[in-house]
Amino acid sequence: MQEKGTISIHTENIFPIIKKFLYSDHEIFLRELVSNAVDATQKIKRLASLGQYNGELGQLQVEVSFDEKAKIITISDRGIGMTGDEIKKYINQIAFSGATEFVEKFKDAKDANELIGKFGLGFYSAFMVADKVEIETLSYQEGATPARWVCDGSTEYELTEGTRLQRGTDIILHINSESEEFLQQQKLQEILTKYCPFLPIPIKFGTRTNSVPDGEDAEGKPKYKQVEIDNIINNTHPIWVKQPGELKDEDYLNFYKELYPFSDDPLFWIHLNVDYPFNLTGVLYFPKVKKDVELRPNKIKLFSRQVFITDEVKDIVPEFLMLLHGVIDSPDIPLNVSRSFLQADGNVKKINTYITKKVADKLAEHFTKDRAGYEAKWEDIGLFVKYGMITDEKFYEKAQQFALLQNTNKENFTLEEYHNKVKENQTNKDGQLIYLYTNDTGKQDGFIQTANSKGYDVLLMDAPLDNHFISHLEQKLEKTQVKRVDADTIDNLISKTDAPPLALSEEQSTAVKTVFETAIAKPNMQVSVEALQADDMPVTVTMDEFMRRMKDMAAMGGGGMMGFYGNMPDTYKVTVNGNHPLVIRLSQLENEEEKTVLAKQTFDLALLSQGLLTGSELTSFIKRSVAKL
């Protein structure tokens, strides 16, 4: 058998285009060729199970080897092999429709995803790293003749009788000078570990030493010796291909350590297993999340039939679950030929919806069966739940039953429970229910104590997403406002009745305002004298709730108008309680200097109690106080 010919494509430009568009992911050549070898091996197993192949199967594994001096990488299998005619059918004829139009359309494209997503070019990824590719193969079919195929990356090939004596295929790559990095053992090991850790057929890459029992020493203690064994780089039966009933908690935790060896144990996990209307398996883990966590996605690995594809799963996994860890495996997710990017498809949307539902159901189940355990994990779980409620309407509807609000006493309530707790006491005169919150119990302690003294409850909202979550709650909860406890005086935050009469005359009120403006002497402090309860604080310094919230969001990286507000200077409202005995006394003083000193002291005490004094201001305040002793 000897034949020369031309690969059946409609343009001679196809190889340069393949190289150009796949170059950014050039290491995937090894994944593609190993995956093909695994497919061929699985096919011979299938044929044997059906009685269509009765020969000896032998050791079914794929072997990757390399020769640095000869600049050769070889991928070998004991699969079904190919005949010469099958090579011409499957290798020489790249299955295009309208290839010429296709090449013309994409010749200037910058994005490989559109190009390589439509055609079966996996084998030809070999030409990204090889000047020449050889195939040595022998079909499983009785009486088949070995075949050898050689191509140098042009559209010309040579097909002759081969030398292989055993069923299966060798793919031999003659590595080009630009790709010699792939002739290093460590580099090949890294690629195989990344892309092939869970392929269903053993992948051998060289050998490694292993300790085995070797009798006992003179004292009767066991001895061991070092032996060379095959270096099998993959786990052929990961837990996600098993049924949940087969697995124990220990199995899930061990697999998590296999995926993330340096991480703390997860909080819990969800086993995905569905075969209609799409195929999807996998395990998603809820990790422990710190308050100062960097929101880093790419912890979920996507597989297709146990072949690693990508950790970019934003279209499959809902945005709010991108911080989960684990694996998803689905043959029904459309991929481009490099199998590194997803393509738009109805199944992707269905899978996304399914995962949202499974997560919501799992959280609801956990909350119902073990509320105490759920509350203990809330500091970690809350980030996911709040993010989901903000970004996903369907999840919000389900999450209302297990989302928790925590107050400063560390008590936890569902949304309905908290509404019932505070609705009677914290509804203002206009029928608006007011939720109070703090994001810093230390700095805002004085305001919290004042609120508590009136029987009001204060929520603790100090998690990374709480500013956004608060705004979302206000949109969702009917006739409800959420206000930070230090955003105004407590009587203004929850106004129950009309303000009491002002004890100062209009002239006195104006004079007190002027005195405080003189004592403060800061343009960002706007002074007003108001009629409050006599036992309220004499001076309160607050920032408008809207401005404060915009600034908090801007500090988290919010753009647009939030960024605009974030760049604006801080402005404060200084509320002087015209009914407080201290302020009334100040209004009655005749000495202007004494008035100013008293106003300054009262203002500084207000700043001190609210944690608003800067370092230099605090130092000056202490010096003035000591001087008076």
Structural domain count: 4
The portion of residues assigned to helices is: 25-40%
Top-tier CATH class of the largest domain: Alpha Beta
Q: Strand order, main sheet: write it out.
A: 1-6-5-4-7-3-2-8-9
SS field, number of helical segments: 21
Corresponding CATH architecture of the largest domain = 2-Layer Sandwich
Shape: elongated
Which structural class do you get from the secondary structure elements?
Answer: alpha+beta
Estimate what percentage of residues fall within beta strands: 15-25%
Q: Overview of this structure, please?
A:
- The chain has four domains: 2-205, Histidine kinase-like ATPase, C-terminal domain (Heat Shock Protein 90); 240-373, 2-Layer Sandwich (Ribosomal Protein S5, domain 2), CATH 3.30.230.80; 404-493, 3-Layer(aba) Sandwich (Rossmann fold), CATH 3.40.50.11260; 506-627, Four Helix Bundle (Hemerythrin (Met), subunit A) (Up-down Bundle), CATH 1.20.120.
- α10 (378-391) crosses α11.
- A hairpin with an 8-residue loop joins β4 and β5.
- The chain has 629 residues and is of the alpha+beta class.
- 37% of the residues lie in helices and 21% in strands.
- It has 21 helices and 22 strands.
- It has a nine-stranded mixed beta sheet with strand order 1-6-5-4-7-3-2-8-9, with helices on one face. Strands 10-11-14-12-13 form a five-stranded mixed beta sheet, with helices on both faces. Strands 18-17-19 form a three-stranded parallel beta sheet.
Strand and helix map with partners:
Blueprint: E1 2-6, H1 14-22, H2 28-49, E2 62-67, E3 72-77, H3 84-92, H4 99-106, H5 112-116, E4 130-138, E5 147-151, E6 156-161, E7 168-175, H6 185-195, E8 203-216, E9 222-232, H7 249-259, E10 268-274, E11 280-286, E12 300-304, E13 307-310, E14 325-329, H8 346-369, H9 371-376, H10 378-391, H11 393-399, E15 405-406, E16 412-413, H12 415-422, E17 433-438, H13 445-453, E18 458-460, H14 466-476, E19 480-484, H15 490-493, H16 506-520, E20 525-530, E21 539-542, H17 545-555, H18 560-566, E22 572-577, H19 581-588, H20 592-609, H21 615-627
Parallel strand pairs: 2-8, 12-14, 17-18, 17-19, 20-22
Antiparallel strand pairs: 1-6, 2-3, 3-7, 4-5, 4-7, 5-6, 8-9, 10-11, 11-14, 12-13, 15-16, 21-22
Helix pairs in contact: 8-11, 10-11, 10-14, 16-19, 16-20, 17-18
